[in-house]
Amino acid sequence: MNSWTAALCAALACNSVFAADDLEAREAALAAKLRCVVCQNQTVAESQAPIAKDMRRVIAEQLEQGRSDAEVVAFFEQRYGTFVRYTPPWKPSTWLLWCAPFIALVVGFVLLWRTLRQRSQVPRSRLTAQEQARAKAWLEQSHDNPSKEDSA
Predict the structure, then answer these.
(1) Non-local CB neighbours of 95 within 8 Å, separated by 6+ positions
(2) Could you tell me which residues are beta bridge partners of residue 85?
(3) What is the pLDDT of residue 10?
(4) How many CB atoms lie within 10 A of CB 25?
């Protein structure tokens, strides 16, 4: 009976170690998904702000109580709004946020295409004989009389 009791105790100890590792992994994953409400450019996992430390503690407490990841995220969203998510959810109020870079890229390509197309359709005018003579005289004059800037 003693060997069975020892084996049972060992199995329970191993199970609690694996459960603790699992909770720590879930805590780290959740902390990486949530934004620090003070730093705003760091996740809760990265931030060393006191509120981020409190948020990590609350995450750990809620996971120990048996709450799911979605319930923990919902708790923080209720408290701080959807801004607390580091990656905003895909819903109608955030569609512009998700699609804006692609829309800007498409608009940029359309503007580039229109500009290049308009340039190719503009007739190129040649200089008249009078304009060519004037340009030639100006070039010869500037070549014969270099300015002070050119000699420096």
Answers:
(1) none
(2) 34
(3) 52
(4) 10
